[in-house]
């Protein structure tokens, strides 16, 4: 059974094994997420922001850190997806999709659209399968979805 839930400050340490796993794969985005959370730079605590984790049989197998106001726009109408990661052992099981569905449900309450940036071809295909459109010519965004 997969459980998706919002992370609070008491849960952030539960991501440690995922961070180690992501580093072994050559990814740095979860290390940045945890460091920014610890320093207070980004705690996903503002109105319209959230951090989600996925658990399978009480084991943390994914995180989407998560939903922020888009820092690259002046208005408050755009949200931004950040730092999605699923454990290799949990990939292709729908966990990333469930995390993104939770993010999108939350985002619809606050924003008119969501943006993100990725240079990973598999992530590109994944986000397009969720309804995101590819953006060209932007230094800060590669994908957008409008609600």
**Major β-sheet annotation:** 8 strands, mixed
* Total count of domains: 1
Note the gap between the termini: 29 Å
Gyration radius from CA atoms, angstroms: 14 Å
- Provide the CATH topology: Aminopeptidase
Structural class determined from secondary elements: alpha+beta
The appropriate CATH architecture is 3-Layer(aba) Sandwich
What value does the average pLDDT take?
95
- Total number of β-strand segments? 8
Q: Encode the helix/strand succession as letters.
A: EHHEEEEHEHEE
Helical stretch tally: 4
The residue ranges in which pLDDT falls below 50 over 5 or more consecutive positions are none
Q: Percent of residues in helical segments? A: 25-40%
CATH evolutionary superfamily? Gcn5-related N-acetyltransferase (GNAT)
CATH first level: Alpha Beta
Strand content: 25-35%
Pfam families: Acetyltransf_1 (PF00583)
Organism: Paenibacillus aurantius
Keywords: Acyltransferase, Transferase
GO molecular function, one term: acyltransferase activity, transferring groups other than amino-acyl groups
Offer a quick outline of the entry.
The protein is α+β, with helices and mostly antiparallel strands.
What does this structure look like?
- The model has no long low-confidence stretch (mean pLDDT 95).
- The chain has four helices and eight strands; from the N terminus they run βααββββαβαββ.
- 29% of the residues lie in helices and 27% in strands.
- Helix 1 packs antiparallel against helix 2.
- Strand 7 (133-134) and strand 8 (143-146) form a beta hairpin.
- With 147 residues, it is α+β, with helices and mostly antiparallel strands.
């Amino acid at each position: 059974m997969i459980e998706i839930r919002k992370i609070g400050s008491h849960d952030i340490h539960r991501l440690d094994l995922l961070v180690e796993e992501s580093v072994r794969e050559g990814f740095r985005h979860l290390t940045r997420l945890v460091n920014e959370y610890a320093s207070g730079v980004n705690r996903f605590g503002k109105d319209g922001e959230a951090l989600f984790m996925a658990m399978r049989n009480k084991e943390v197998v994914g995180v989407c850190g998560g939903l922020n106001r888009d820092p690259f726009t002046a208005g408050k109408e755009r949200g931004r997806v950040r730092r999605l990661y699923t454990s290799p052992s949990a990939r292709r099981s729908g966990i990333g999709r469930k995390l993104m569905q939770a993010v999108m449900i939350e985002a619809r309450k606050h924003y008119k659209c969501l943006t993100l940036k990725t240079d990973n071809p598999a992530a590109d295909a994944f986000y397009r399968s969720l309804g995101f459109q590819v953006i060209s010519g932007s230094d800060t965004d590669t994908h957008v979805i409008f609600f």
